[in-house]
Specification:
Strand content: 15-25%
Largest sheet: 8 strands, mixed
CATH superfamily: Ribokinase
Pfam family, one: PfkB
Radius of gyration: 19 Å
Structural class: alpha/beta
Shape: globular
Order of helices and strands: EEEHEEHEEEHHEHEHEHHEEEHHEEH
CATH class: Alpha Beta
Number of helices: 11
Protein name: Carbohydrate kinase PfkB domain-containing protein
InterPro entries: PfkB_dom (IPR011611), Ribokinase-like (IPR029056)
CATH topology: UDP-N-acetylmuramoyl-L-alanine:D-glutamate ligase
Oligomer: single chain
Distance between the termini: 25 Å
C-alpha cells in the first residue's frame, strides 16, 4: 500500500467543509461544499513539494461524517497523499461558514460541531507518531501539551521530529507573551503572520515596514528560540516572508507580484507551512529553500477558490495547470538575485 511509506510531514490541522455567504450588498450567491480547513491546505502545500514519489509521506486525518460528499473524497484522494480517512456515521462532518460583510470584515462560525485532531489520534497510528515533522495550528497551551506527549511516546531511539507551529489569532495577545516565550524553547519553526506576531506585543492592524522586521523579531522572539537550528518565519502576505535564524536574516518575496492574480487568499498560510516544511527537510534544513517552496505553493493555492486541482501528464504533476518546475522557473526569472541552486528536487 502506498500510504505505508514513512511520514515526512503530518498536519494536525482540521478538515472542514466551508460555505461562503455574502451580505445582500454583494449581490452574490452562496458558495457551498468548499474543501477547507488548515489540514487540507497544509497537506496540499506539502504534497506539491513532495512530488508523486514521496506524496504518500504527507499525512493527516480527515474525519468524515454521514454527510461527507463523495466528490470531496475523490478530490482529496486524487492527491495520492498519505491522508487517513475515518468515518463516523453518527455525526455530521465539520462545516464552517465564512460570512462576508460590505465593510470588508469576514465572520466565521461553525454550522456543525467541530471535530479537531487530538494528540491521542496521532498516537493511534504509528506512521503518524513517527513522522519527521508535525504541523500544529493551536493555542500556546495546547501546542506545549502536544509536543510533550509526542516526544514522550516516540521513545529514546527515535529521531527528534521538527515542529512547525502556527499560532491561532485569538491567542496572539500581549497577555500571552510570557507563555509564548516559554513555549518557543520547544518549537523549531515559529510561524505567525506579521499581524499575529505584532499582536503578541501590542494590538495593531498595521504591518511593520520590512526594514524594521529584524529588530522586532530579535527583540521579542529570537532569544527564546533555543532549539538547535530553530528560528522565526514571519508570513507577510503579498510581501512574502521574513526568515530569522541565528545565521540568517532574509526577506523572501512572494510568488505573485501581481495581486490581480490572487482570487482567494484562504489557505495561503497553511499551504505555505506545508510547502516550507517539506522543502526544508528535502534540502537538509535549508531555510531559504523551505521559504521559496512555501511561497511557490501558497502562490498556487490563492489562484482559485478552494484547493488546487492536480493532473498527471508524462509523469509530471500539474497543480492549477502548472508544474512546480514551471513555477520555480517563473520565480527565478522574477528574482534572479536569489540563490536557488539547491531546489533541484523540484
Amino acid at each position: 500500500m502506498p500510504n505505508e511509506q514513512p511520514c515526512m510531514f503530518t498536519s494536525m490541522g482540521m478538515f472542514i467543509i466551508d460555505e461562503n455567504r455574502y451580505e445582500e450588498s454583494f449581490s452574490k450567491e452562496p458558495e457551498t461544499n468548499i474543501i477547507g480547513g488548515g489540514l487540507t491546505y497544509a497537506v496540499a502545500g506539502a504534497r506539491m513539494i513532495a512530488g508523486p514519489q514521496k506524496g504518500s509521506s504527507v499525512a493527516g486525518i480527515v474525519d468524515k461524517g454521514s454527510d461527507f460528499p463523495p466528490e470531496i473524497e475523490s478530490t482529496l484522494k486524487s492527491w495520492n497523499s498519505g491522508l487517513i480517512f475515518r468515518s463516523d456515521p453518527s455525526r455530521l462532518t465539520s462545516r464552517g461558514v465564512n460570512y462576508y460583510k460590505g465593510n470588508g470584515i469576514r465572520d466565521f462560525f461553525y454550522e456543525t460541531p467541530k471535530k479537531r485532531i487530538e494528540v491521542i489520534d496521532i498516537l493511534s497510528y504509528d506512521r503518524l507518531l513517527n513522522s519527521d515533522s508535525f504541523h500544529l495550528i493551536c493555542s500556546i497551551e495546547r501546542c506545549s501539551e502536544i509536543i510533550d506527549t509526542i516526544l514522550a511516546n516516540r521513545g529514546n531511539n527515535s529521531a527528534i521530529p521538527q515542529f512547525i507551529w502556527e499560532p491561532v489569532p485569538y491567542d496572539c495577545i500581549p497577555e500571552n507573551y510570557d507563555a509564548l516565550c516559554k513555549l518557543l524553547a520547544k518549537v523549531d519553526i515559529f510561524t505567525p503572520n506579521l499581524i499575529e506576531a505584532q499582536n503578541f506585543i501590542e494590538t495593531t492592524d498595521k504591518e511593520l515596514p520590512t526594514a524594521e522586521l529584524k529588530q522586532f523579531v530579535d527583540d521579542h522572539f529570537m532569544k527564546y528560540l533555543t532549539k538547535p537550528s530553530s528560528g522565526a518565519l514571519i508570513r507577510c502576505g503579498a510581501r512574502g516572508c521574513y526568515i530569522r535564524t541565528p545565521k540568517l536574516s532574509s526577506v523572501i518575496p512572494a510568488y505573485h507580484d501581481d495581486q490581480t492574480l490572487v482570487i482567494d487568499p484562504t489557505g495561503g498560510g497553511n499551504s505555505f507551512c506545508g510547502g516550507f516544511m517539506v522543502g526544508y527537510l528535502l534540502s537538509n534544513k535549508d531555510w531559504k529553500v523551505g521559504a521559496i517552496c512555501g511561497n511557490l505553493v501558497s502562490g498556487c493555492i490563492i489562484e482559485k477558490l478552494g484547493p488546487p486541482e492536480v493532473k498527471l501528464e508524462n509523469n509530471i504533476e500539474y497543480w492549477n495547470d502548472k508544474s512546480m518546475g514551471e513555477r520555480l522557473y517563473e520565480y527565478r526569472r522574477k528574482y534572479p538575485s536569489i540563490d536557488m541552486a539547491t531546489l533541484d528536487f523540484l
